[in-house]
Amino acid sequence: MRTSEADKEKRPTFGTWGVDLSLGDPSVAPGEDFFRYVNGTWMDEYELPADKAAFGAFHALSDEAD
């Protein structure tokens, strides 16, 4: 999965450490469901590719190498 320069410019970063808070769900209290608080928007928007049982950074790296 390649990231274009335009996509990189759209994603917010805070400081040099690169924390991206845009994928969290601020409507959830962190003490109630921390996983949803941090990943809520991503969970709602991400769709697993139909030909994959799992997908992550190492899967993307393997696909690029192939």
What does this structure look like?
The chain has three helices and no strands. It has 66 residues and is mainly α. It is extended, with a radius of gyration of 14 Å.
Compact description:
With about 70 residues, the protein is an all-alpha fold.
Poorly predicted parts: none
Assembly of the depicted chains: single chain
Give the biggest beta sheet. none
Label the overall shape: extended
Span between termini = 12 Å
Order of helices and strands: HHH
Mean pLDDT: 82
Describe the SSE topology.
Elements: H1 5-10, H2 34-45, H3 57-65
Descriptive labels:
66 residues, mainly alpha, 3 helices, 41% helix, extended
